Amino acid sequence: MLQFFDTLQAVWHLLVDRDPTLAxxxxxxxxxxxxxxxxxxxxxxxxxxVLGVAQFRGRGLLMALLNSALAVPSVVIGLLIYVLLSRNxxxxxxxxxxxxxxxxxxxxxxxxxxxxALTCQLVRDADRAHGxxxxxxxxRTLMRSGLWLWDQRHALVLxxxxxFGRAISEVGAVMVVGGNIEGFTxxxxxxxxxxxxxxxxxxxxxxxxxxxxxxxxxxxLLALGRHLQHRNDWAHRKPWSVAGNGNLG
Length: 249
Prior knowledge:
Shape: flat
CATH class: Mainly Alpha
Strand content: under 5%
Distance between the termini: 72 Å
CATH superfamily: MetI-like
Radius of gyration: 22 Å
Number of helices: 11
CATH topology: MetI-like fold
């Protein structure tokens, strides 16, 4: 029991004293996941919006593949990228293996399908409900996609936060392609796994607390964003409802 409280005290000192090793791992992890999220949204928002609006032959198969990509284990994605970036792989000349670039690439490929799928569903629901006005104006697929992306921009922020939460909690792919090199490619999730196996519980628990705090903050931001979005939707619907009741009266 005393050992448990000693561990908690050590964790507290690591967090309060801003241990340099811990701080470097946290900053590196946030940087990798933020970069991957930006790349995934730049790729996923336009593709997802087009898929949400467009109707073409083979769309069903494409959506099935996209939904299947959501269930691919992260370690398999890491293995695929490892093979591509290995010395004998087609992208071996880049020299990215066991680097932050490889980790960003892995997380981008991991979360991009999530961004595409959520954006596609968001735009598709909006287009089904209110897309008739765009059809009357003769807006084509790309224009409609762009208009819906702008119209749903607040909801897209929530999708980006969801993607960041998925990226920062990932461990399998980044460990495979990054190598978990101390001071270079070690991030929070891989460091927690390593420190736990080494028996350094204070460092593992301190990193776990930081990661948990990040996830909790993301969920609070998501909840706040949904609340604000619902209030905004209600504010836009309410005048129509009042006007309608007045007309009926």
